[in-house]
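In the design runs reported in the main text, the only information available to the sequence generator was the tokenized backbone. The following block is the verbatim input for one such run; it is reproduced so that readers can re-run the procedure and compare outputs position by position.
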């Protein structure tokens, strides 16, 4: 094969409950995860060794050394393979929307195709990152355990969202360290049939990481408030460990107008409208 490409969609935690912590320090989660039609792209071409180039509007600050999750994902296939990997960055880093994990998952799928090899073992993938299994799935999923337990959920209604990041990076470890409790109740059983019943169900869930994240980065509260103020926004919340917040809309026109309005008011923020896949 002379070349291949893979899409790494943004991952959004619509709800994220922390339900426990294992003896090894890993937190147990119960989360509803969806993916958006925006993200990074990876391109693969022939090379004698594995090489990584990072480009695109969000390339600044992204490491290109062995700590990069894309290179660590490639290493799971073992020695004896070569590829020139170009990572086209469009998502902000350390933003709570799975940029690094989504890139690594796309690398696993793309390189498996490029090299005609099976995916590495699940245990190796989970060890690389707890979000990797759900990013490999790439569809609305209930994610539990440390990320290795995936369950299908009822079909979602048509969802549009606006993602807003106030331009701050939030360290995940510090956010988890600020939790009041690590043994909260799990999500309610998924139960919805349309947009109204879905958002009603979602309002009864939570993101346990939002409060400690806001203590570190108060701008998260500003982003959420900006989303909540927009016409047609049914619910706004922080995704993952932050700092990106999302607002849910039933209509594309409302979502795009909200993104324009917030972007004009806060030109230094990263703001975009997207459709849930």
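Verbatim output:
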């Amino acid at each position: 094969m002379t070349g291949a490409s893979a899409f790494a969609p943004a991952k959004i935690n619509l709800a994220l409950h922390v339900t426990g912590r294992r003896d090894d320090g890993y937190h147990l989660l119960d989360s509803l995860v969806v993916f958006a039609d925006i993200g990074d792209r990876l391109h693969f071409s022939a090379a004698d060794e594995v090489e990584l180039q990072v480009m695109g509007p969000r390339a600044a600050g992204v490491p290109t050394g062995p700590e990069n999750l894309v290179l660590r994902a490639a290493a799971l296939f073992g020695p004896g393979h070569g590829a020139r990997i170009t990572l086209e960055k469009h998502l902000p880093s350390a933003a709570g929307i799975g940029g690094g994990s989504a890139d690594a998952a796309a690398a696993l799928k793309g390189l498996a195709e490029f090299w005609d090899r099976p995916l590495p073992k699940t245990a190796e993938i989970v060890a690389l990152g707890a979000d990797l299994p759900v990013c490999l799935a790439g569809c609305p999923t209930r994610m539990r355990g440390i990320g290795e337990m995936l369950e299908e959920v009822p079909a979602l209604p048509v969802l549009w969202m606006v993602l807003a990041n106030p331009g701050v990076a939030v360290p995940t470890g510090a956010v988890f360290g600020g939790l009041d409790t690590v043994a909260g109740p799990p999500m309610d059983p998924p139960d919805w049939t349309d947009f109204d019943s879905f958002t009603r169900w979602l309002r009864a869930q939570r993101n346990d990481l939002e409060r400690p994240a806001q203590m570190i980065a108060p701008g998260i509260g500003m982003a959420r408030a900006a989303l909540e103020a927009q016409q047609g926004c049914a619910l706004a919340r922080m995704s993952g460990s932050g700092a990106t917040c999302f607002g849910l809309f039933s209509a594309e026109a409302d979502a795009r107008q909200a993104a324009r309005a917030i972007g004009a008011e806060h030109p230094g923020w990263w703001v975009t409208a997207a459709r849930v896949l």
